[in-house]
Design a protein that fits this description.
With 52 residues, the protein is mostly helical. It is built from 2 helices and no strands.
């Protein structure tokens, strides 16, 4: 089981749009990354995995 209760909102599908057969066949690929903000609401004693 997991301890996480959350939701992810995918509002930018650029990486999926960049996924081509050439990208899949390549050894490595760097996708375009846009600035983003992660919001995490946690109490004082968060799960150890949250304390990054």
């Amino acid at each position: 089981g997991t301890h996480g209760r959350g939701i992810w909102i995918l509002d930018n599908i650029n990486a999926i749009q960049e996924l081509t057969p050439e990208v899949v066949a390549s050894e490595a690929h760097l996708f375009t990354v846009e600035p983003a903000e992660q919001i995490r609401y946690a109490r004082e004693k968060a799960h150890a995995g949250d304390m990054v």
